[in-house]
Amino acid sequence: MNTRPIAPDRSLDELDRLAELAEDVIRRCRAAGASQAEVAASIDTGLNVSVRLGEVETVERTRDRGFGITVYFGRRKGSASTADLQPDSIEASIRQACAIARYTEEDPAAGLADAALMAREFPELDLWHPWDIDVERAIALGVEIEDAGRAVPRISNSEGAAVQAGETLAVYANSHGFVGRERGTRHMLSCALIAEDDAGMQRDYWYDSVRAAADFMPAAELGRKAAERTVARLGARKLSTRQCPVLFVPEVARSLIGHLVHAVSGGALYRKASFLLDHAGRQVLPAFVDIVERPHLPRGHGSTAFDAEGVATRESPLVLGGVLQRYVLGSYSARKLGLTTTANAGGIHNLVVAPGGDDFAALLKRMGSGLVVTEVMGQGVSIVTGDYSRGAAGFWVENGAIAYPVEEITIAANLRDMFAGIVAVGSDVDPRSHILTGSILVERMTVAGE
C-alpha cells in the first residue's frame, strides 16, 4: 500500500502571489511614466521520464518561470522579461521596458486591448488535474508501455517510451485593472518503436495527451498501438506519379485546418501575405463544412476564459456553410485592419470542425482507390500563394481497403483547390489537440513518386 503523503496543493496561493506582484509592477510602471502597462507571468513545473529497452534514460524535473513586462508611452511600446522574480531583477526589467518605449517610434496600432472587452466572468473549465506520480511509478509506467509494444511480433528495437506530467500557473494583468488567473495541467505518454524485415527498418510512434491522467488510454494499449503502426509500415513501396484522392488521417488533417487559420490570421492579412486576403463573407470550403471556435470546452486543450490580452473569449463560428465568417485577430492586427479583436491574441482556442457521419472505414470505401496520408514532412507550404508540396508517407488504398504502405512520395496541390475539393470530414475526431477534426478526404491531389 502506498503511504507516501500527498503534497498540499498550493497553486491558488502561488497564483495570488503572482497576481499581487503583477499588480505592483503595473503600479510602478505607471509611476515611471507609462500611460499603459501589462504583465504576463507564469510558472511551469513538470516531471519528464524516458526509458529505453527497459532501462531509465532520463529523469528531469523542471520549474521554469517567466515574467514579461510591456509598457506604452502613448503609442510607443517597450517590452522586457526576466525569469528571476527577485526585486532587483524585476526593477531592472521595468527600467529596460520603459527605456525601450521612450526611444521607440510611435505605432498607431499599439496599446492594450479596449477596456470594455476585458473578461468579467471566469467559468470553471476543469483544466486543473495535478498528477500524483513519482519518479519510480513514472519509470514503471514507461516500461509497461514499451514492454507492451516490444512484445508485438516483428518489433526489433525501440526508441523508448516517455512519461510527462506538467502544471502551468499563469497570470495576465494590465492597467485597465484586469487581473486574470489561470491554472492548467497537461500530461503525456508516448512510445516510438522500430520494426524490421528483409526490406529494411521502419519507425513509428503513438502518444496520448490529456488534462487529467484518468483520461489516458491504457498504457499497454498505447504501446501496442505504437507497435501496430510501426509493423504496418513494413514493406513500404514508392508510387508512380499520378493524380488521385487523398485521405488525411486526423492527426495530419488538423495541419490543413492550421494552414486555414494561418491564412485568415491578422498578421498575414495586414501584411497582405495571404491567399485568403479579403475573403471574409466568401466561400472557402464546401457548403457542408462548419468550423466553430469553442473556448470553454471542459478539459479542452485550448480552453480559456480570456485571451493573451485579457479579452473575454466566447463561442464563435469561423466557417459556416463553407463561408468564412471572420478573421482571427488580436487587438493589434485588428487595428491595423480597421476591425475589432476576435479574442485570438495568442492563438485559436479549441477549433472544432463539425464531423460527418462516416468513420475511417467508411471514408476508405468512399474513396475507393487513393492515398491515405499518415505523415507529412518538410515546410513546403506558402500561405502567400497557397501552394502546397510536402513529403508524405501512408498507405495505398484499392477498392476501399488498404493495399500496402507507401513512402518517399510528395503530395502537391494549391490550398485553395484542396479546401474547395474537400469531399468529407470523418467522425474519427482526434481529441489530443486544440484543433479538433476527423479525417479529411480531398478529391484530388498530385502524388509524385518514382
How would you sum up this structure, described in words?
The chain has 450 residues and is of the alpha+beta class. The chain has two domains: 11-231, PmbA/TldD superfamily (PmbA/TldD fold, 2-Layer Sandwich); 242-448, no CATH class. It is 24% helix and 36% strand. It has helices at residues 11-31, 87-102, 135-150, 219-232, 250-263, 266-270, 331-337, 360-367, 415-420, and strands at residues 36-52, 55-73, 76-82, 155-174, 179-197, 200-210, 242-248, 291-293, 316-320, 323-324, 351-353, 370-377, 387-398, 401-414, 422-425, 435-436, 440-448. The strands form three sheets. The protein has a six-stranded antiparallel beta sheet with strand order 3-2-1-4-5-6. The chain has a five-stranded mixed β-barrel with strand order 7-12-13-14-17. It has a five-stranded mixed beta sheet with strand order 10-9-8-11-16, covered by helices on one side. α3 (135-150) runs parallel beside α4. It is globular, with a radius of gyration of 24 Å.
Ends apart, CA distance between termini? 60 Å
Helical content stands at: 10-25%
Count every beta strand, where a strand is a DSSP E run of 2 or more residues: 17
CATH superfamily grouping of the largest domain: PmbA/TldD superfamily
Tally of helical segments: 9
- CATH architecture classification name of the largest domain: 2-Layer Sandwich
Mean pLDDT: 96
CATH level-3 fold name of the largest domain: PmbA/TldD fold
Q: Order of helices and strands, N to C? A: HEEEHHEEEHEHHEEEHEHEEEHEEE
The main sheet orders its strands as 3-2-1-4-5-6
